[in-house]
Design goal:
By secondary structure, the protein is mainly beta. The strands form five sheets. Strands 14, 15, 16, 17, 18, 19 and 20 form a seven-stranded antiparallel beta sheet that branches. Strand 14 and strand 15 form a beta hairpin. Helix 2 crosses helix 3. The longest helix is centred in the N-terminal third of the chain and has 13 residues. It is globular, with a radius of gyration of 20 Å.
């Protein structure tokens, strides 16, 4: 099969906290004023991505995997995950604060939900002045202290706040309490999982006047109550180089800021490659063809590609593999 670089139709999600930056900054085809997420590449049941370019346009990601699993994903990936696409790629626009939440680890998610856990990373693409993220506790707490803060509506006093700007990157391991703050537009790379434990939602009500469901009891045994400064991702931004950002069991992410073209021999990579464009534009090619990418777009390159060629006059890319 012709496994040229694939682009996909964005799966757009309205959220109570969403805004218009996905349209205004990234050019997504939205009409709603509360679109919070653009799922760029998804194998989540009910939200399977669909190819938007080339002769395979209209083919779903799952159909492609069924036909070309090892060629598309890589043998090592198929050995670990079968025909499940293991990564979920999103752009997120928070006009308002997101709920404070956490995600269970693989073991707990499998036991409770027959799902993977959710380890994720964030790359800030745009931030209003003073915009913040909530990541972890300000200090280590006991479970009883945390429960008391929920009862007394003082949870926000226990949180750790990080002011952010473009390029700031964070790694959110399972169990870490967190929230994206108002005014932040970011790229998110995560395990394929939609399991979230919401613990506080600022007492907001939906359009029908209902409070959103909280998962207080489920979160208690999934939460890490300790203060850990392990969330900042310190990476080099050397121009025209491959700069490692995150290398964990679930995904590997590099930062590429290119002023000119780059060629990579990937014959031994044994993994698909994802490019998220977070600035500028480029043309990305492999053995079968090429596709253009600009800020706010995503491309999937098959594992069976022997090379990747990037042509550009200026681009910033997140390169994701397994």
């Amino acid at each position: 099969m012709n496994l040229y670089p694939f682009k996909f139709k964005p799966i757009l999600k309205e959220r109570l906290w969403g805004g218009t930056k996905l349209k205004d900054v990234l050019g997504k085809p939205i009409e709603s004023d509360i679109t919070g997420e653009s799922w760029e590449l998804s194998g989540v049941d009910g939200d399977i991505s669909e190819i938007s370019n080339g002769i395979l346009a209209g083919t779903s990601l799952q159909e492609l995997i069924q036909k070309e699993g090892q060629s598309l994903l890589g043998k090592s990936v198929v050995d670990r995950f079968g025909n499940d696409f293991p990564i979920l790629i999103k752009f997120i626009d928070a006009k308002q604060d997101l709920s404070i939440q956490l995600h269970p680890n693989d073991e707990l998610a499998k036991k409770r939900h027959n799902s993977f856990g959710k380890t994720e990373m964030w790359y800030v693409m745009d931030a209003d002045p003073g915009a913040k993220l909530i990541i972890g506790f300000d200090k280590s707490v006991e479970k009883e202290e945390y429960i008391k803060s929920l009862e007394e509506n003082t949870l926000l006093d226990l949180m750790n706040y990080e002011e952010v700007s473009e390029g700031d990157t964070f790694f959110i391991n399972t169990g870490k309490i967190h929230a994206i703050g108002a005014g932040v537009l970011l790229a998110e790379i995560q395990q394929t999982s939609d399991v979230t434990y919401r613990v506080f939602d600022f007492n907001r009500k939906d359009k029908n006047g209902n409070l959103r469901e909280l998962h207080t009891e489920l979160a208690l045994d999934a939460m890490d109550y300790s203060r850990k400064d392990d969330f900042w991702v310190n990476y080099s931004d050397t121009m025209d180089s491959i700069n490692t950002m995150v290398d964990c069991p679930y995904f590997k992410t590099n930062f590429l800021e290119l002023s000119t073209g780059m060629n990579q021999n990937i014959a031994s990579r044994d993994s698909f490659t994802i490019y998220m464009c977070v600035g500028g534009e480029a043309e990305i090619g492999n053995d079968w063809g090429s596709a253009k990418i600009k800020k706010g777009e995503t491309i999937l390159v098959a594992a069976s590609s022997s090379r990747i060629e990037i042509n550009t006059l200026g681009v910033k890319l997140l390169e994701v593999t397994i």
